[in-house]
Write a structure and sequence with these properties.
Number of strands of chain A: 12
CATH superfamily of chain A: P-loop containing nucleotide triphosphate hydrolases
Largest interface: A-B, 44 and 47 residues
Order of helices and strands of chain A: EEEHEEHEHHHEHEHEEHHHHEE
Number of helices of chain A: 11
Strand content of chain A: 15-25%
Number of domains of chain A: 1
Largest sheet of chain A: 8 strands, mixed
Strand content of chain B: 25-35%
Radius of gyration of chain B: 21 Å
Number of helices of chain B: 11
Mean pLDDT of chain A: 87
Shape of chain A: globular
CATH class of chain A: Alpha Beta
CATH architecture of chain A: 3-Layer(aba) Sandwich
Structural class of chain B: alpha/beta
Helix content of chain A: 25-40%
Helix content of chain B: 25-40%
Strand order of the largest sheet of chain A: 6-7-8-3-9-10-12-11
Number of strands of chain B: 14
Oligomer: heterodimer
Distance between the termini of chain A: 55 Å
CATH topology of chain A: Rossmann fold
Low-confidence stretches of chain A: 1-20
Distance between the termini of chain B: 15 Å
Mean pLDDT of chain B: 86
Strand order of the largest sheet of chain B: 6-7-8-3-9-10-12-11
Structural class of chain A: alpha/beta
Radius of gyration of chain A: 21 Å
């Protein structure tokens, strides 16, 4: 139990990234997660929900990688497997070059303070019987070498940092509004000065006027604490606002990944194009003339995905080969990855 | 209180000074505080607000669909078809609910009966509210499902709700709401539980149906994006009151209430990448007491003395444009 963490309030040593070459913090190769479907008295395995099917990507130090997709696309599972909250079925995930999927619990515990998560629902992710100070102080108790007074000081610091009043430290979660509760969740996540935070739909349960507050807070903290985010969301407009690069998931697969402006201005995958055009713009003038790509049908079940390209059942540009062969995940132009047969390699 | 144009001749539904309270163990919640508006025939009216703004309770109160007790409609009139719906007996109200006024709810999984087939749930409403019988009922049900874009409608009549996806269930809800050719459809956050590509399908269906049928729609939502391309007029609610009401173009181009401005500013837009979002500070208004001042004042950048002592009245600030605010946001001076 003697995990040693130096004075947590101190600035962690920053990697000198003087060059423009982005340093890779998290690297994922062919990550796969299947959840078994069991049936009968003997709980025999009769199939699997293929939540994540061999995804590969890097997250650079200091960036925000947006991960968008519809419900059931596997974006949350990707985040959870990345942090080893669920065990990967296959593939690899590394943090600063250290392999996470084969790491022992003991080793993983040492890394935990550096990789944290902010959850979607601030109502169910905070223990209703704990005060704010014990919720935010719990990671400090586990991982930091601080006495009670030091912990209290740090908790007050954290609450101020996320825009809550330190005087409210002894209140319970139900005494706060949804937006304030989410700030408590953020304070808990940054308590140990992490390097990497997975934000799993952090604003989906909040009112519109409160969403902007929380997003502004996350951006402020990223700048002040030098954080790297994986920002999981179904809200394409918010992801465009906050992310540096964006990945699009469909049925457990990455279908496209590019720098944010490139992805929104020049989407290559037919699914990204449809998703982009489906997002309503709060402007009646634009809405009146906009052309929508309306996809037919629904996202297939991940327990029984189609053969070939996962999108072939709804794709407006589907060809025969799409139904047979799963397209390769390839880099079409620099930094722009896509998995689609129809997209021609561009020569620039 | 109300603008002249509201009592227009072709209003199908007219709500005046509606107030609803909930008596909870923790005290009285003043969910709706004197709401007045009119719905014209064939018009698409969007009602926008955050949770607790009173948008759903207002619409539910119109047909006495709130649980009573703890709910209580303390004042108001809802004129529909030359009668006050709030005065009607339950048996008479039943003829209106699902007949002349159709409903679409947010979550199609919980609002459809899981043990009845889709076909039965549509025909039930047809048998109760129309003269159709026998095969004609089934034909009409099939026609409705085709109209909302459900493929293979005849076979689908025999399906149960759990066999359909969320988007298909919501289409069934729309079909049920349309079944008796209502004059008004009230849709409460009909796309909120759906994914964005499915939401786009539903919006497209609503656009098509609007052109084909002469039904007025009240669309309750928290999403200013969804209704931008659908609505004719928009009502913005805050703290149980209407704070702004305007034609859709005016509301987005020239919002007059600071809350509406704040809402529009806090949405990042795909077509323009901004810097920091202009969030509205603070939390939504408490509705624990009848407001004696502007509910938005504690969060408002323009609040001055009067805002903290007097409730602003909803009044005309432009052509068919009303706002309840003591500050003239364009003139940069208090309103008299």
């Amino acid at each position: 139990m003697t995990t040693e963490v130096s004075e947590t309030a101190d600035q962690k040593p920053k990697a000198s990234s003087s060059s423009d070459q982005a340093e890779v913090l998290v690297s994922v190769k062919n990550l796969t997660k299947h959840f078994p479907i069991r049936k009968g008295v003997f709980r025999r395995e009769v199939g699997a929900v293929k939540a994540v099917e061999g995804v590969s990507f890097d997250i650079h130090k200091g960036e925000t990688l947006g991960l968008v997709g519809e419900s059931g696309s596997g974006k949350s599972t990707t985040g959870r497997v990345l942090l080893q909250l669920d065990h990967a079925t296959a593939g690899s995930a590394t943090f600063e070059g250290q392999e996470l999927t084969t790491m022992s619990e003991r080793e993983l515990r040492k890394l935990r303070p550096r990789m944290q998560m902010i959850f979607q629902d601030p109502h169910s992710s905070l223990n209703p019987r704990m005060t704010v100070s014990s919720i935010v102080g719990e990671p400090l108790k586990e991982h930091a070498d601080l006495d009670a007074a030091g912990r209290q000081k740090r908790v007050e610091e954290l609450l101020t940092l996320v825009g809550l009043q330190p005087a409210h430290a002894n209140r319970y979660p139900h005494e706060f509004s949804g937006g304030q509760r989410q700030r408590i969740g953020v304070a808990r996540a940054i308590a140990m000065n992490p390097d990497f935070v997975v934000c799993d739909e952090p604003i989906a349960a909040l009112d519109v006027s409160i969403q902007a507050q929380v997003v502004n807070l996350l951006e402020k903290l990223q700048e002040e604490l030098d954080l790297t985010y994986l920002f999981i969301s179904h809200d394409l407009s918010m992801v465009r606002h906050i992310a540096d690069r964006v990945a699009v998931m469909y049925l457990g697969h990455f279908v496209e990944l590019a720098a944010v402006d490139e992805l929104y201005d020049n989407p290559l995958h037919p699914y990204t194009q449809a998703l982009n055009s489906a997002v309503p713009v709060p402007d009646p003038v634009i809405e009146a003339t906009r052309k929508r790509i309306i996809l037919e049908g629904d996202i297939p079940s991940p327990a029984n995905p189609p053969s070939g390209c996962p999108f072939n059942t709804r794709c407006p540009q589907v060809e025969d080969r799409c139904r047979e062969v799963n397209p390769e995940w390839r880099e079409v132009t620099e930094g722009h990855w896509v998995a689609c047969h129809v997209v021609e390699p561009k020569t620039q | 209180m109300r603008g002249a144009y509201l009592s227009g001749k072709d209003a199908v539904l007219e709500v005046s000074d509606l107030s609803t309270e909930f008596h909870t163990p923790d005290g009285v919640v003043h969910a709706v505080n004197g709401v007045s508006f009119a719905l014209r025939s064939g018009e698409f009216l969007a009602v926008v607000g955050e949770s607790g703004s009173g948008k759903s309770v207002t619409m539910m109160s119109m047909l006495k669909l709130i649980p009573m007790p703890p709910g209580k409609i303390v004042a108001g009139k809802v004129m529909f078809d030359h009668q006050d719906l709030l005065e009607l007996e339950t048996s008479q109200l039943r003829k209106v609910r699902g007949g002349e006024i159709g409903f679409i709810f947010q979550d199609p999984m919980t609002s459809l009966n899981p043990v009845l087939t889709i076909g039965r749930q549509i025909t039930e409403s047809l048998e109760l509210h129309t003269d159709l019988s026998g095969d004609a009922v089934n034909d009409r049900a099939e026609e409705l499902l085709t109209m909302v874009g459900l493929p293979d409608a005849r076979a689908r009549l025999k399906s149960y709700p759990h066999e359909l996806s969320g988007g298909m269930r919501q289409r069934v809800m729309i079909a049920i709401a349309l079944a008796c050719s209502p004059k008004v459809i009230v849709a409460d956050e009909p796309t909120t539980a759906l994914d964005v590509t499915i939401q786009a399908q539903i919006i497209e269906i609503m656009k098509e149906l609007r052109e084909r049928l002469d039904t007025a729609v009240i669309w309750i939502t928290h999403d200013l994006g969804v209704v931008a391309g659908l609505a004719d007029r928009v009502i913005v609610m805050y703290g149980g009151k209407i704070v702004e009401e305007a034609r859709v173009g005016d509301l987005y181009a020239n919002p007059q209430h600071p809350y509406t401005r704040g809402l529009l500013g806090s949405i990042p837009r795909l077509d323009q990448k901004g810097q920091e979002l202009s969030a509205i500070e603070g939390s939504p208004a408490s509705i624990r007491a009848i407001p004696t001042s502007c509910s938005f004042a504690p969060r408002c950048d323009y609040a001055h003395d009067r805002c903290h002592t007097e409730v602003p009245v909803l009044r005309e600030v432009g052509a068919e444009h009303m706002a309840a605010c003591w500050w003239d946001i364009d003139g940069e001076r208090p309103r008299l």
